[in-house]
Amino acid sequence: MKTRVSTITFLLFLGTSPSLLLGQGSGATGKVGLVGIQEAIQSTGEGKKAIADLQKKYQPRSQEIQKLSQDIQAINDQLQKGAATLSDDEQRRLNRDLEEKQKLLKRSQEDAQADFASDRDEMLRRIGQKMMKIIDDYARQNGFVLIMGSDQVPIYYAAKEVDLTEQIIKLYDAANPAEAVSSGVPATPPAPRPAGPATAKPKPAEPKP
After folding, report:
1. With contact defined as beta carbons under 8 Å apart, do 55 and 187 qualify?
2. Of 18, 42, 67, 88, whose CB is crowded by the most CB atoms within 10 A?
């Protein structure tokens, strides 16, 4: 039951009724196929271009997060090396600076991750909705009564010819030509964790959820 709910939820997320993939109905006999939906989306020309655009969009924010992490590490190094020589006032100043930067890093990470997830989900929904139409047409034209998402349900065995992912990718690219890009790896904004303080005085950064 949990698997069925997961599959239906994903299809509803794409704005597509599961009944569109069931062919003639429960009494029909015909072929069954599998499609790796997320793999297919990311492997299309449009998907690769969208991923490359996301990488480019979030690169400056990733660099800012990395710079903050380096600044935090530098303050920690300064506190450690000067533990015996720094004045109490200087240690307090460095600890305050450290705590402020840790808070800023945590907030920047959370904001970047939330914005990235929103953009990624919009991309998956946009391409996924068009892909559902491709799958529906392919199923009706080729005698399929059921096509399931292989990345949404556990598959314990499937003959190689049952996997329709490559065919769907080719059909999608033919219907939705896009500029080819070299990278098909999903982008994720780097989120380095803040280094812990050198002494027990400063408040440590809150753990990332």
Report:
1. yes
2. 42
Establish if 143 belongs to a structural domain: yes
- Residue appearing with tokens 């490359």: 52
174 is written with which tokens? 């033919």
pTM of the predicted model, to two decimals?
A: 0.67
Burial class (CB in 10 A: 0-12, 13-18, 19+), 163: middle
CA distances from 49 to 21, 117, 173, 176, 188 (A): 27, 17, 12, 12, 15
The answer to whether position 180 is within a domain reads: no
For residue 207, tell me if it sits in a domain: no
Pairing of strands 31-35, 144-149: parallel
- For 153-197, what is each residue's pLDDT tens digit? 788 888 888 999 999 999 999 999 876 544 444 444 444 444 444
**Residue 112 included in any domain:** yes
Secondary structure class of 146 (helix, strand, coil): strand
The neighbouring-strand residues paired with 34 are 148, 163
Task: Name which of 59, 58, 66, 48 is nearest 119 in CA terms.
Answer: 58
